[in-house]
Amino acid sequence: MTVVLRRIATVVAVPIALLAVWWMTSAQSTSYYLPPLSKILSTFDDVWFNQRFLDDVVPSLLRLLVGFSLALVLGVALGVLVGSSRAVRSYCEPVLEFLRAIPPPVLVPVLMLFAGIGDTMKVLVIVSGCIWPILLNTVEGVRAVDQVLSETCRVYRIGGRARLTTLVLRSASPQIMAGVRQAVSIGIILMVISEMFAASNGLGFTIIQFQRSFNITEMWTGILLLGILGFVLSLAVRAVDRRVLRWYHGQRRTHLGAR
Amino acid sequence: MTAVLGLAGFATFLLLLELVPRVGLVSPEYLPPLSEILGALADEVRTAEFWQAVGDTLRGWSLGLLIAVVLGVVVGIFLGIVPVLREFTASTIEFLRPIPSVALIPLAVLVFGTDLGSTLLLVVYAAFWQVLVQVMYGVHDVDPVAQETARSFGMGWWSRVRHLVWPTALPYVLTGVRLAAAVALILAITAELVIGSPGLGNRIGSAQSGGAVATMYALVLVTGVLGVAVNLLARLLERRVLHWHPSVRGEVAV
Question: Which of A54, A121, B77, B161 is deepest in the core (most CB within 10 A)?
Answer without folding.
Answer: A121
